[in-house]
Specification:
With 304 residues, the chain is of the alpha/beta class. Helices cover 32% and strands 12% of the residues. The strands form two sheets. Strands 4-3-2-5-6-9 form a six-stranded mixed β-sheet, with helices on both faces. β2 (107-111), α3 (135-149) and β3 form a beta-alpha-beta unit. The longest helix has 17 residues, at 207-223.
Length: 304
């Protein structure tokens, strides 16, 4: 998983042997990963969006009451994404600058509006379920959590420049939420329909800005006390996995399309200490025909 260069980390901010390496921002994971967390013996095969076609091998301790595939994925995610000193300093600077962590509990809201939205129009897209959701639907979900738990401060993680402009312009003052967000130029995301990866390849987008704002948003979302988003999004799902892995429990959350699901997982094999498979089960059987799910339109919020 960690071999090779990461295009997001190929910039001047990653010096020396960390250029293109995940270790530019995170601690080396190899020594910390539990011994029984093993990958499938053969390298995975990928489609255009990194869909795994090989089975995943999952230790028996995650079966049943051990949390299942979610706990397995979240555990590995935590070991891979443990911030190093450089990333920790960056996080601390941002948190001080925006007032993150002061003033009581905080609701993390991931608003997915960007290059992914155009992909919903492709009937062959791998993306399941719903189209990008209007912010008013996020507000309705946020109000549910506020009414139940009394939280009114919200950290907004989004690539939508127009949404931030509306928040700064007071368009949502009547909602009585206090919004905070990481300040950066989000217009770079919406200047064309090109994917972010293509923009970086064509040198029309600052790699360091993309890498650091993305990582900061994900890590700050994971530190929030509540979550609202779309768990079909890998970005939102990653933040939620880190939240569970670091806190040890599920925070109250609302997904505006699907509950969490291991969308990259093929059939799962649980194995014991001797390496022998003890149980095998098909995963995501309801998500194999993505085109059919897309035709259903926007779904009701999934509340947990």
């Amino acid at each position: 998983v960690l071999h090779g260069a990461w295009s997001y980390f190929r910039h001047r901010g990653c010096p020396g042997n960390t250029l293109g390496s995940i270790e530019c921002y995170f601690q080396p994971p190899h020594s910390a990963v539990p011994g029984d967390v093993l990958w499938a013996s053969d390298p995975p095969e990928y489609t255009a969006n990194y869909q795994l076609s090989h089975d995943w091998h999952v230790p028996t301790r995650f079966s049943g009451g051990g949390g299942g595939v979610f706990a397995f994925v979240a555990t590995i995610t935590r070991h891979f994404l443990s911030p190093n000193r450089r990333m920790t300093r960056l996080l601390d600077d941002v948190k001080r600058g925006i007032g993150f962590g002061i003033g009581g509990p905080l609701m993390g809201v991931h608003v997915r509006h960007g290059d992914s939205c155009t992909k919903w129009d492709d009937k062959h897209s791998h993306l399941p379920g719903t189209r990008c959701v209007d912010f008013n639907q996020y507000l309705a979900a946020m109000e549910i959590i506020r009414d139940k738990y009394g939280v009114s401060r919200a950290f907004i993680a989004t690539d939508d420049a127009s949404l931030i402009e509306k928040i700064e312009g007071g368009d949502y003052e009547e909602s009585e939420f206090e919004f905070i967000f990481v300040p950066f130029d989000r217009k770079l995301y919406s200047e064309s329909d090109w994917s972010i990866e293509l923009k970086m390849l064509m040198a029309t987008m600052d790699r360091r800005m993309v890498a650091e704002t993305t990582l900061v948003d994900i890590l700050l979302l994971s530190q929030c006390d509540y979550f609202v988003g779309t768990l079909s999004s890998h970005f939102g799902a990653l933040a939620y996995e880190l939240s569970w892995a670091n806190k040890g429990y599920h925070i109250p959350h609302i997904s505006l399309d699907h509950p969490w699901s291991g969308s990259l997982l093929a059939p799962v094999q649980y194995y014991g200490a001797d390496g022998e498979t003890t149980k095998e089960e098909e995963h995501n059987t309801v998500r194999k025909d993505f085109t059919e799910r897309q035709s259903t339109g926007v779904r009701k919020p999934v509340v947990f």
